[in-house]
Amino acid sequence: MDLGLTDKVAVVLGSTSGLGRASARALAGEGAHVVVVGRRQELVDELAASLPSAAGVVADVTDPGAPAIIADAARSAFGSIDVLVLNGGGPAPGTAPDLTADGARAATDLLLTPHVAMVGEVLPGMREAGWGRIIAIGSSGVQQPIPTLTSSNIGRAALAAYLKTLAGAVARDGVTVNMVLPGRIDTDRVTALDRAAAEGSNTGAAEVRAASEAAIPVGRYGDPDEFAAVVTFLAGRPAAYVTGEQVRCDGGMVASY
Question: Which residue segment(s) compose the domain that 236 sits in?
Fold first, then answer.
């Protein structure tokens, strides 16, 4: 299938590791020019150098000026922005009874506010061009809250509500807006969460992982490339009629439809 991504320009936030890195590589594999965004210069440079056509931007998207810097750098390198992949690190684990007002505010400051600002930088150009793809890397916690990730549940659910509302407002401009929800994908973030769960339950990380795998119908953690394939399809031309959706990539872990 030709995804029609040759020479499209894709900005991928948090693309130096995990699901962001896999998504950047998958988009590049389909012929897109990729703008690599991360906080560490050496990781940004390493990934950008490994891709066929890429530019690197060192930025922390939570800094107020970062979205404009990222967008300006992308346009300077490639002239336009066709695809925006929203992604970033998650808050520390914590349960709902332990959440404070400051913690709730921090969750939205991390997972909602900077992404709204980033969309604001790229959306006018997409609407003017009559073509654009906005894809957020979320979490299965949007649909089935994870008891130990309360802050993540809150911040990502708020982002999901914004994106769903946005999708209806820009659909006739040729811009689609979707969210991909990972379950247990084999990344450093999930490994760290397994380790934290093990410490909290006085068991081993291997036992935590085995229990998690037993609860997943396919019986294993996902591969980041499997997740990235979903992101890349949604970025492509054939997905033009898919918008306002939350697409799970979780091996069947979430039980509801």
Answer: 9-185+222-249
- Per DSSP bridges, beta strands 175-182 and 246-249 are parallel
SS3 state of residue 30: coil
Q: Is 91 in contact with 111 (CB distance < 8 Å)? A: yes
DSSP codes of every residue in 130-176: T-EEEEEE--GGGTS--TTBHHHHHHHHHHHHHHHHHHHHHGGGTEE
Contact 14, 60 (CB under 8 A): no
Residue whose token pair is 């935590």: 208
193: pLDDT confidence band, cut at 50, 70 and 90? confident
Mean pLDDT of 97-126: 97
SS3 label, residue 198:
helix
Q: Supply 67's token pair.
A: 């979205």
Domains in the chain, number:
1
Q: Is residue 216 part of a domain?
A: no
CATH classification at residue 135: 3.40.50.720
